[in-house]
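Researcher: Structure for this, please.
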Amino acid sequence: MEFTNVRSLVDGVAGIASGQVGNLVGPQIILTTVSQLEPIKAYFTVSEQQYLAFVKRNPTEASREARERQFELELILSDGSIYPRKGRFFAADRHVDIQTGAIRLAGLFPNPGNVLRPGQFGRVRFISYTRIGALLVPQKAITELQGSYQVAVVGNDNKVTLRTVKVGERTGAMWIVDEGIKPGERVVVEGVQKVRDSMLVKPTLVAAQGEGN
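Model: Predicted structure, token format:
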């Protein structure tokens, strides 16, 4: 009878059995699948540019590991609600996907009561660093031309000047601009494709939709 006692090697939740009473089974037959749910892993991706920026801010392996331990992950479920328990960073994949240009990461979330199940969809967000005094510009105001980025700036005389800018990270619908414009300057956010250098325009101010701090 000892040979008929099958035990799982991990604690977790078993799926619906594929082997039923009376079935002939052997070593290669899958009886069921057991998933470890406490804690549960959540997989998400970051772009190669975001990864390289993280490495530049934390140049040594020790500094990167210390920063990773400080990450507090937040899980947004498929219905838009926020999972009440915070997660922590677990591991990064060994390679960057050549098709997507992203690297896969894994986080661990507490899962009492097995509320979260394998295969669920969610979005993971966390604060990788805080940048004080960043200049944010709506993404739709920035155009890319042969690898460079431009914005249309409206001067005090309502004439348009096309400027090449150096952009940083994106945050929501905004883009951080490192060089090329100054705080308080006006940029064109609608009809960007129609404006030309030195064109006289009649601007209408719109409310800025800044995100983050």
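Researcher: Any notable elements?
Model: Residues 47 and 102 are 4 Å apart (CA to CA). The chain is about 10% helix and 35% strand.
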